[in-house]
Amino acid sequence: MANLKLVLQESNNEFPDKKADVLASLVNSILFATDQDLLDAVREFRNTPIMPVFVDAIGLAGTKKSYTVGKNAFTTEAPEFLERFLQALAQTTKIDIVIINDLKAWMKSINDEYYEKYIAFTAANLYRRYCESTRNRKYECENGKNEDVNEFMEYIITRCKDSNCQINTMQIFENLPLLRKFIGKLQSINCSTNITEQRTSYFELKRETTGYWMNP
Length: 216
Known about the structure:
InterPro entries: Lipovitellin_superhlx_dom, MTTP, Vitellogenin_N. The chain is an all-alpha fold.
């Protein structure tokens, strides 16, 4: 932990005057730290001025290691930073389908609508970068041919039972290429309070955008 701890200690003295430099140094140190180093640092610096920037760096690092430690630490030991961690993770430039899949599983299992929205938003943002990473992926995502993205969309659409959830759904889908094209139709889908009608409308939209039919 020597290098990471040293950077955090020095950053506490320089923050906030050199915030951008501090963030870059922390991200770099996180890449070379062990899981235990990261967890120890969260515990030691939790109540220091540098902690919010450290949380940003953990999310922005975007590795499986930083994600796993961040998820575990900010759901148990320092939950006050969970929202910030998810917001930072949503901005990472790393593309890791393992992280995206875990976010989807986490989203479905968490019993908290507030954080479910943030997890879904993060997953959608990472899906957008995933879809834009290659020409082939972009084509698949924009034409409804990526089953992972389709499954994510279906879950988000059909889980809603109230207007607040429907509003959140529209905000989440603004990050996905396919859905941006049909945002008006999705608004109509989400205006329905009948789950069966929502599912039927979703598959009709899917048929229109992809050229194939799937039974609701």
